[in-house]
Amino acid sequence: MRRNTPAGLTIAAIDPSGAAAWAGLQSGDMVLRVNGHEVADELDVRFYSSDSDAVFEIMRNNEMMSVTLETGEGPLGIEFADLLADGVHTCSNRCVFCFVHQMPKRMRRSLYLMDDDYRLSFVHGNYITLTNLSTAEFDRIIEQRLSPLYVSVHATDPEIRGRLLGQRTDTPILPPLQRLAESRIDVHAQIVLCPGLNDGVILDRTLDDLTALHPAVSGLRSGVHSVAIVPVGITRYRDRLSEITPPTQGYSRTLIQDMRPRGAMMEKTLGTRFAWLSDEWYYIAQKEVPGLRHYEGFPQLEDGVGTTRLFIEEIKRLKRRLPDKAPQTVSGTVVTGALAAASVDRLVQALNEVEGVDLKLMTVPNHWFGGTISATGLLTADDIARNAQEIDAPPPLWIPDVCLRHGERVFLDDVTPDDLASRTGYGIHIVPNNPVGFASVLGLT
After folding, report:
1. 3-class SS at 128?
2. Reduced to 3 states, what is the DSSP secondary structure of residue 345?
3. What is the Cα–Cα distance from 306 to 292, expressed in whole angstroms?
4. What Cα–Cα distance (Å) separates residue 243 from each residue in 137, 194, 236, 238, 246?
5. What CATH number does residue 253 fall under?
6. Cα-flanking dihedrals φ and ψ of residue 186, to 5°?
7. 28: domain range?
8. Residue 90 falls inside a structural domain
9. How far apart are CA 79 and CA 176, in angstroms?
10. Domain match, 301 and 319 both
11. What is the pLDDT of residues 189-224, one digit of tens each?
């Protein structure tokens, strides 16, 4: 979705100590231009106001006016209502593994939004394909140094990549990646691995091609710095979609084994493992995730690479801080999905060592999406309620906040925590999805 003319950015709040307050900008003002440039998003505002003085053209109470900000070295002190003025740029691909195409019907419309927006890639780490970029947008990435970006590669063979993205033509990725590298834009890459489609020799070629774009090999200052390899997610809603074989335990174990020598070789030549398998591969393979040093600072954490290890390490640190006795009795049922069950069980066991704590673990199967979906963040209130009632789970329910949609107190199936409490009769507590945060809510730290 792109508007021809940016609608402007509405100011939500002003920091009294910032340049905007001194210049007289107010909450509710709509910023249309900065130094003569139309602004499509907050990134434009930051970029075009980098001079010592910046002229803001705004709309206030349906009247146009100009305000000059002496920006200097200090912050603007502006909080906008939205990051984007021109709407989210959506995806025109029809990827064979697209999760949105595998969702049930009649869910909230916003859940079916397929974004492919380079600005959300820069700000939030969303993965983009680069296939929906206009020439002007590519130029803007370079001009404004929007680095790093997160790019869905999947395969460097143009024909294979085109097939994966649902395109009828070859879809090369190496030329745009090369241009980004030459323009000092860093990239973190993603491969959604589909057995029989982009694995085997195709995967080897993809990793070899991406390795060639690492600065240690290319000699450039920027390039591809890391690769996350994640398994294709399959739901039960694949009617009229191409058939994809989900990875098995044996397949996952072989992949883990095959990646070890490559990682060791990369460490010697690049100084980094470069490519990492997401945690889900170890869950499917029923293998322990690697140790802390394996992940080298966790460059692909948002893609599920190393989250389990971080969780386990946090439990170890937490155990040294826990009291011998809880200040008040703690009981109930901790909710988790199958993917995180083993690590959350470690947390529950650690907490139960404290006198006065009696928590049970409830691993909830994902019937709503079905298939291979096992992440806690994709659990619905319907599945949580059904499972709690089936096993007569001890109340209350302690539910991690990743089960709620970002920025909202609502589950994926449009049920609120209060609705869930009314439906089940359980007390519902939404808690941080990390050991220390959870223990703090329980009054144990």
Report:
1. strand
2. helix
3. 8
4. 35, 11, 12, 8, 10
5. 3.80.30.10
6. -80, 150
7. 9-80
8. no
9. 33
10. no
11. 999 999 999 999 999 999 999 999 999 999 999 999
